[in-house]
Amino acid sequence: MSLGRAVxxxxxxxxxxxxxxxxxxVVLSAVLGSGAVADAFFVAFKLPNFFRRLFAExxxxxxxxxxxxxxxxxxxxxxxxxxxxxxxxxLLLVLVPFSIVLIVAMPWxxxxxxxxxxxxxxxxxxxxxxxxIAFPYLLFISLASLYGGVxxxxxxxxHVAATPILLNLTLIGAxxxxxxLLPNSGxxxxxxxxxxxxxxxLWLLVACARDDVAMSLVRPRWTARxxxxxxxxxxxxxxxxxxQIGTMLDxxxxxxxxxxxxxxxxxxDRVAQLPLGxxxxxxxxxxxxxxxxQLRAGQTESAMANQNRAIEFGLLFSLPAAVxxxxxxxxxxxxxxxxxxxxxxxxxxxxxxxxxxxxxxxAFVLVKALTPGFFAREDTRTPLYIAMFVIxxxxxxxxxxLYGTTLAQVGIALATSLSGWxxxxxxxxxxxxxxxxxxxxxxxxRSWRMLAATIGMGAAIWGARMALEPVLAHANxxxxxxxxxxxxxxxxxxxxxxxxxxxxxxxxxxSVMRRQPGLRSADPDEQP
Length: 528
Prior knowledge:
Number of helices: 20
Shape: globular
Largest sheet: none
Number of domains: 2
Number of strands: 0
Low-confidence stretches: 515-528
Distance between the termini: 10 Å
Mean pLDDT: 81
Helix content: over 70%
């Protein structure tokens, strides 16, 4: 499967997931609001997500996918599948006792995560209960991530990309269906998280069986392949831990600010994550197994070209998305969330955080496109060193913004964005110095054209917003219609300027979507 086709598949399903996710967040904002119950739930929800990104989607995936691809290339599907089952046994050996310990120690863990919440005993008690209910999600979603790595490596992207939709639908159903039966909506949402993890695991377990890569249980054994996996995963775990500690420190800083700050940052991040999920994560997911196979086969020029196209795709969508979200942060938050227990003050607080988050949006996408250049070469140490330096800078920026300025939640979001740009720049410099990535003429030329088209689109959106400001100030039908109209205008202007400046050509779109031969598993028995 070509890079463009894979990105389109992952991005398409991710877009559907994000749209359903917005519906989920609209429901959560209306039912939970932006107060104590919401803060308690979002703190509890962040805990299993922290370790999910650390164990499953961070260290484990980054180390597992290149090794699985190598086994697939050298030994065929049977050897690769045997390795995947050994990896699953090793993962369970760590996660089962770890989950039990964390559930028992939840009060102490949340004391470290949100120290400011200890001053509000009822809210802290809710967070502990919510965390214990939701934490089993970690075990299920970690297994699902492993299965996703297997499926992505054999060019089966659709089932994996559709998996988050189950989380969103389950949370919506749990909050609406269980809230009347429980003390408050936070309990319903926490139960929904645990059930969603179970459903996502079962979904990919069945998908693996259908694609003849059934993930049956085997006895844990310390083999050379498992040792190599641990060796590669350890630096990523430390580096990923540093990055996730930075994310969790945002909760620590926010817990020291007025009630509602944690919720505001959560909702703002959810909106900012839309283009990152559709573009950035899609690129990273599709690029890593492709680069691993090409480099293993000695196709270095093809790998370099795909790295450049991945960066080009990322900039093509992230630049206009960042400008549009920055200019329209207020009306977007108002239309999406201002109802029920989410009021105008919550809108202003959340919109300001969103504007700061999207400053780093292109950088976050670039990180997703650049990091596979290291992981595909089984280099997991360099991103570790870069991540550790970036987290130190992030902490320093947070301290400065919180205590040296009056930016409050805006400072927390801005520190994250600036750290993202530093991360992307350092990754790019190291790859360039090693000659593992050289920006080709097409990328350099089109980057400037994308920037010009983005500036033109931004001017059109700004003018339309000024003209429709009285209508956009209300979260009613006219306000929604006006916001959609401005978004459509921005899209049309960007597409027209892009076509005029030669940013994208129709023939090229058809080319990148065409299946590429020779990139599938080396197993001769595999069917197309």
